[in-house]
Structures are given as structure tokens and as C-alpha cells.
Amino acid sequence: MDQLTPGEKYSPYRIFSAERWAEFRADTPLTLAEDEVRRLRSLNDPVDLDEIRRIYLTLSRLLSAHVEASQLLFRQRRVFFNSDNAVKTPFIIGIAGSVAVGKSTTARVLKELLQRWPSSPKVDLVTTDGFLLPNEVLRRENLMERKGFPESYDVGALLRFLSAIKSGQPDVQAPLYSHMTYDVLPGAYVTIDRPDILIFEGINVLQTRDLPQDGKFVPFVSDFFDFSIYIDADEKLVHHWYIDRFMRLRETAFKNPESFFHRYSQLSEEAARAIAEGLWTNINLKNLTENILPTRPRADLVLRKGANHLIEEVALRKL
Ligand SMILES: Nc1ncnc2c1ncn2[C@@H]1O[C@H](COP(=O)(O)OP(=O)(O)O)[C@@H](O)[C@H]1O
Ligand SMILES: CC(C)(COP(=O)(O)O)[C@@H](O)C(=O)NCCC(=O)O
User: What is the CB neighbour count within 10 angstroms for residue 202?
Assistant: First the structure.
């Protein structure tokens, strides 16, 4: 039995060092088969395989235990209520955290790992940027400098989407965003058809809003989650990752004349860096401090990253 520190005893979280977390290998196949390694590599994500073995396999095992428990509960309720035609609904995992902390990368890796479990062969992934208001609306409302802030999303559409998924509806559409045009794609959707797991990823997924004055019930996005993860890192590290990604995109995606940020690929490195610093400080850091970090205590699990995106600590909410 581990000793709990006095602070931890009454905290809602159990805290694990990465080393301790990695030890939870038990009897399940916590190894990667060759074709899985190939699939993970084909994602072209920079997460190294040792880190996947060390942290993400244990996490996928824990999540799969939650999925199996919820499926068992569903079956027992069906027997209890004698309702053969009850529909199974997807298990929804929310992933929150700052811009550039690594949400999309983690979501893609988890999708690959989770779909190998027999209880969840079908895992889908949706990002909340598709629910941003179109640039045309953001410009009209003077919100272009507030992209990613709570008021820049169509929260109604977001809640309708999750509500449809959680009620077991087939073929639910989610709108898509393009980082190339820096705008939502008009008329473009991804169709989500009753997956076993839906991973729903975005900076705003653990946010709450004041309830409207008229007393009508309005759910929070996280009311639809079965499990939520917050990816955390020191602000200085995330700043570095944001600038790094921007400068890399300048050498690649921004070179495309169709790219919204094409003009930045034409600037000197110094001038482009200054633009990135401005976007970080005036938009993303502000949003992190005011709207994202305050949602961290609502997560079921916090992954705390250090340099090079390596997970240093895992905090798991006590049941
Ligand atoms: N585990 C990781 N190891 C190494 N680099 C990573 C890892 N996760 C993310 N990155 C890099 O950090 C940057 C931000 O990651 P991304 O997943 O795009 O963040 P977000 O979706 O939170 O904006 C990208 O350049 C990405 O390649
Ligand atoms: C699109 C984003 C708001 C992230 O959205 P998310 O998928 O987390 O809902 C963000 O990547 C972004 O573009 N922020 C605006 C400032 C900037 O260009 O970095």
C-alpha cells in the first residue's frame, strides 16, 4: 500500500509519479503489436513509443475498465427494466487544456490505443473547433481577436451535438474547421455513427456558464462526459510549444498560397516570431489564464507534462 502524503489524503486526487503510473501493467496486454506500432507511426505524431508504453498504455487500460463498467451497467439496467430495445450510447471522453499543450496528439494516440480493446473497437474523434462561429460572424461581432474564448463558439450547436450522441442517435453530424483557411468549412461535416467511444477534444470542454435567468435547465458540455482529461504543463513550456509549432507551420502549411497565414511565410523569421508571440500573449495565454486553467479541477484525470512533452505526474480523481 502506498503512503498518502498529508496533503493528498484529503485532496480529491490520487497523485502518481510517471514511474509509479507506468507500473500498472497487471495482466492485460500492455505491449504494442507490430501493426499497432506501424499505425501509431503513420499518424506522424512526435510522441515517442517509450512514452506510449510508459504512460498511454496504462491510461488506455484504465479508460477501457471504465468503458467496460459502463457497458455492464447498461446491460444490467436493460435486464432490470426489461427493455430489450434500449439503445447503447457512446462512452464520451473529454480532453481539455491549453492551445498547443498536445490535446490533438494525445487524442489521436488514445484513439489508436482504445480501439484495440474488444469492448471498444469503434472509436471516433471530434474537435470543438468545428463549433467556432464562422469568421464572418466573428468579424461582425468584433470577436476575431477572441477566437477560442467562450463567446467565439456556437455553444447551442455543441450541446445539441452531444445530446444527440448521448441519446444514441445514428449519423450525427459535427461541423469541421480548417486551420488552413482559419475558418469553419461551410457545409463540411464528419458523421458520427454510434461509436463505442467518442473522444471530444477542445480547449473549452470543461467550461461552465452562468445559468440563464429564466431558470431553464441548460447542461454544461461536461454533463455529457463519462470521463474527462485535462492536459497540463507549465505556461512557459506551452508558450514554447506554441511558438515552435507556429514557426514549423511557417516552413510548411503557411507556404501554401491558400493558407490564411500565408503572408507570415513571406516575413523574416524575426517578424514571424513577433506575430506568433503576439497571438500567444494576447489571445491564447489570456484564454488559458482566464478560461481554461480554471476548469482543471473539474477533470477526472490530469496529465502533467514537463519538457519535451514527457508526462511527469498523473493525478486521478478518487472515485
Ligand atoms: N507527446 C508529444 N511529444 C512530442 N511533441 C508533442 C506531443 N504532443 C504534442 N506535441 C507537439 O506539440 C505541439 C502542440 O500539439 P497539438 O497536439 O497540436 O496541441 P493542441 O491540440 O493542444 O493545440 C505540436 O507541435 C505537436 O507536434
Ligand atoms: C482553433 C483554436 C481556437 C483551438 O480550438 P479548439 O479545437 O480547442 O476548440 C486555436 O487553435 C486558435 O486558432 N486560437 C486563436 C489564436 C491563434 O491563431 O493561435
Answer: 27
- To which H or E segment does residue 156 belong? helix 155-166
Interface pTM (ipTM) of the complex? 0.96
pLDDT per position as a tens digit, 91-103: 999 999 999 999 9
The CATH code of domain 6-317 reads 3.40.50.300
Residue closest via CA to ligand 2's atom 18 equals 279
pTM of this structure: 0.94
**Is 98 one of the annotated binding-site residues?**
yes
Average pLDDT on 155-167 reads 96
Q: Is position 152 annotated in a ligand binding site?
A: no
Q: Which residues line ligand 2 (CB under 6 A)?
A: 99, 127-129, 147-148, 202-204, 279, 283-284
Q: Where are the alpha helices (DSSP H) in 43-99?
A: 49-51, 57-80
Centroid of ligand 1 to alpha carbon of 176 (angstroms): 20
Q: Report phi then psi at 8, rounded to 5.
A: -75, -30
